[in-house]
Amino acid sequence: xxxxxxxxxxxxxxxxxxxxxxxxxxxxxxxxxxxxxxxxxxxxxxxxxxxxxxxxxxxxxxxxxxxxxxxxxxxxxxxxxxxxxxxxxxxxxxxxxxxxxxxxxxxxxxxxxxxxxxxxxxxxxxxxxxxxxxxxxxxxxxxxxxxxxxxxxxxxxxxxxxxxxxxxxxxxxxxxxxxxxxxxxxxxxxxxxxxxxxxxxxxxxxxxxxxxxxxxxxxxxxxxxxxxxxxxxxxxxxxxxxxxxxxxxxxxxxxxxxxxxxxxxxxxxxxxxxxxxxxxxxxxxxxxxxxxxxxxxxxxxxxxxxxxxxxxxxxxxxxxxxxxxxxxxxxxxxxxxxxxxxxxxxxxxxxxxxxxxxxxxxxxxxxxxxxxxxxxxxxxxxxxxxxxxxxxxxxxxxxxxxxxxxxxxxxxxxxxxxxxxxxxxxxxxxxxxxxxxxxxxxxxxxxxxxxxxxxxxxxxxxxxxxxxxxxxxxxxxxxxxxxxxxxxxxxxxxxxxxxxxxxxxxxxxxxxxxxxxxxxxxxxxxxxxxxxxxxxxxxxxxxxxxxxxxxxxxxxxxxxxxxxxxxxxxxxxxxxxxxxxxxxxxxxxxxxxxxxxxxxxxxxxxxxxxxxxxxxxxxxxxxxxxxxxxxxxxxxxxxxxxxxxxxxxxxxxxxxxxxxxxxxxxxxxxxxxxxxxxxxxxxxxxxxxxxxxxxxxxxxxxxxxxxxxxxxxxxxxxxxxxxxxxxxxxxxxxxxxxxxxxxxxxxxxxxxxxxxxxxxxxxxxxxxxxxxxxxxxxxxxxxxxxxxxxxxxxxxxxxxxxxxxxxxxxxxxxxxxxxxxxxxxxxxxxxxxxxxxxxxxx
Length: 842
Description:
Layout: H1 7-10, E1 17-18, H2 39-46, E2 57-62, H3 67-73, H4 80-103, E3 110-114, E4 120-124, H5 127-134, E5 139-144, E6 147-150, E7 153-155, E8 178-183, E9 201-202, H6 225-234, E10 250-255, E11 257-261, E12 267-272, H7 273-284, E13 298-301, E14 303-304, H8 314-324, E15 328-332, E16 356-362, E17 366-376, E18 379-389, E19 396-402, H9 405-409, E20 428-431, H10 438-446, E21 451-455, E22 473-476, H11 478-489, E23 494-505, E24 511-512, E25 530-533, E26 537-544, E27 550-556, H12 558-575, H13 581-590, H14 599-602, H15 609-614, E28 617-620, E29 624-628, E30 641-648, E31 654-660, E32 669-673, E33 676-679, E34 684-692, E35 701-711, E36 717-725, E37 733-740, E38 751-757, E39 759-760, E40 768-769, E41 771-780, E42 783-794, E43 797-803, E44 816-826, E45 833-841
């Protein structure tokens, strides 16, 4: 825990609350689902998420309006001179703010500065500076920086004629539209992307041009993700006619993620939330001249922050700012799927109301399988086809060697004995559940394994591993794995034979991909927005093969689905150049092809680009989220009211009727006022939407339906709506305890306040319940002395704070009895919760 040696700074501690577990910043543990985790599924898609330290990193959001706020307040338009003047003014105001903070003893070295999509800075903060900032009048909030991971994985297979079918529009290919890809670096020399890559921007290493970077210590492992996403959007002239969704569009690479140090002394591919916001700043003003006339039309974000679908933090505000500056932000829903809960597994910034959040469907008509035979001695334990990862060069027969979890945790060294002899050379390694990743497969094959077996089936996308040629990766049913381990423990040799690759009909075609995260968002908002193909999408791979050949492969994940949606948005933007970012989103959502799938998994439905091009009406917002329904509160007819704008995007006046779908969920009655509006070309009209939930069951879940907008001779526009029913009662604060660490309460020996914030419910439909805000207040009797600390966006986890014996104004507390009140405010609108503990200053 850092300590100040200057008395002037000690006075500013203001009852410093030091988060003991993470230096100056509390870090939530990643929430665990109440249901059984299918780790072989979601970790096969994401890989093992590396541990990365973000201690003492924060985004400081200021109250003064950003450039986006000023443009919005001026009616959505501003001149080049006005924007440059506002930007310069905001930068000057930030300089004054930082100077004032320094005079008060706060050290705030800005790593990134934001003035366009939001007003703030990212920085490392010591405890003193954090305490000063939390109570400053110009500060809106101090938010923890968290980690974002690529939402995909890859495999090398034969390509087909088209990456995604059904999204072609005659005469349109995205020409003239720029798509900013906020991700890792891109391989600009790949023939599939040649001619479409603009000079890039590198947030991590300014000046590198956002080129895909190699692993700092391991040759042959370049950053791949952005090259793959760029190919899905704008690839052209590939093998057998392979092309992207919008081959005429241009790609602006913005490197916000890539190889960066992890917490274990190595390197991993990831981004941070402060780097994502910096990327959005670059997307709206690529040449950094203060105006946004050169902004990208579409911003595709390929990395996500697991479970963190907060509606009002820095990421959500940055997305709203980019939208106000006319940039449509397309984001993945996340890859936690069925391994996560049904309420709250959407990844950040997928919970941002203005983002186009995309879920993934399995659109494959056929899937690769392999014939597998497992024997224990002479007894056949299994014979039949299983999903395949990799492709064996020939039939493989080998002894099965189970790898224990401690050995797997040690990496490749755990696969060798004390004499340096590989335990799995020439054998089939059976990995324990939950450790499947590119790294573990590479370690096994390097140690000589001829096949890699996984504990648990491989759902769609989980077999997309970049494995050495000829090494099959196969997921075995759980019961079979238990039998194999039992026989091996009893000394009975178990062998596996793998061969006869085949293609089978994909019975899951048209379904939601198993890895795709489900909604709602943490606020109770309706997410995802739309559905797009996201399993085994052919695209470009960076670098060259062993023989110098151009690399192509497939990727699976919601980032692949988001890339498909971004390509569709680029085509739509070419065909409808006058539309705003909000109208583009409204058309894509309102024209989506409805499915019989769960709305919390598929949103409005499958993207239908041809229908979107023909639509004449767009709803803003594109979906209506009434938020949570509080069964314990007295009905307030104004409590569940929302307003939508009906935009006429055609060249003729329209009479639009607004109504509800024929079928509505039991217990919710939705009405609109007015039911008819006349809208001139290029204009909009407001409609008030009310939800009466007096008859709605209090059982946790979701009630959803649709509004229908009908105009003469124009396609119907459907606007999904939802009411969240959070699980109640539920403790969002628990285990609140205060313990002294020494005879006196001081900076050296603070009293330790520990608590568990948020929860993951054990209901039939598990829910992640996070906190939008947590206050630690100091009271003496009935007198409120002030707020000791305020934290935002807390995911479920245990937090610890240190109380140093100082008051909120920085003065030393008098001896006596006090009360510390912890106030939790959930982001989904549920009632706040308060817990109190006695605090004695000796």
